[in-house]
Design brief:
Elements (H helix, E strand, L loop, with lengths): L24 H28 L7 E6 L5 E7 L11 H15 L7 H27 L6 H25 L12 H15 L9
């Protein structure tokens, strides 16, 4: 069975447009460097694209022609939509989480990538403040949570008043002006149970 020669090696890269003119060692080293850079750039930009999803645009590359006549990617960018979603701070927060993750997706984020991540953080903080304001201004006083809170405050005041009256009347040393946590918790559970509809059990 024929055996391959141990000395067989891949042919040296040829110069562009040349007639079987091999590259010099310096040119071969340059090509190897360009190939490595091309791989790095493409992986970097693809990481942005994959994580950015619907908010990431098309990848564009900057190319450099090597001594072998081929073009290699030496830079690139992925446009990403980092604008807020008007009137919906909750959706903005979720969007900015994706934007930040996309910016920091590559193994070695660039300075520009970190700036975009910082911008996303700022947008998230702004949206969170808007969301808190909306929740405060638009809180329903008849919601179970607010009803519970109001009832607890009222009950707490009543308990303290009762304790004060008992103390003044010399009813003993049991009332010390502090509501027993167990009693208050039991009352809270009772109020919540009466204001919250039962939910079906979820099978495990």
């Amino acid at each position: 069975m024929p055996q391959a020669s141990a000395g067989t090696s891949a042919p040296a890269p040829q110069k562009s447009g040349g007639l079987n003119q091999p590259l010099s060692k310096e040119e071969q080293a340059q090509v190897a460097k360009l190939k490595a850079r091309d791989t790095e750039v493409r992986a970097h930009e693809q990481a942005h694209k994959n994580v950015g999803g619907q908010y990431a645009g098309a990848i564009s590359y900057d190319y450099q022609k090597g001594p072998d006549g081929r073009s290699y990617a030496v830079g690139g960018e992925v446009p990403i939509d980092a604008s807020e979603i008007a009137g919906d701070p909750e959706a903005t927060i979720e969007k900015m989480r994706i934007v930040k993750a996309a910016a920091l997706a590559p193994a070695e984020p660039s300075a520009q990538d970190r700036k975009v991540a910082a911008l996303a953080d700022a947008q998230m903080m702004k949206a969170q403040a808007e969301l808190n304001t909306q929740r405060t201004e638009g809180a329903d006083p008849n919601s179970p949570e607010n009803m519970l809170s109001g009832d607890l405050n009222q009950k707490l005041a009543e308990m303290r008043e009762t304790a004060r009256e008992e103390r003044e009347a010399g009813a003993g040393n049991q009332a010390q002006g502090v509501v027993a946590p167990f009693d208050l918790m039991a009352y809270a559970q009772g109020v919540y149970a009466s204001t919250t509809p039962a939910t079906p059990a979820t099978p495990l």
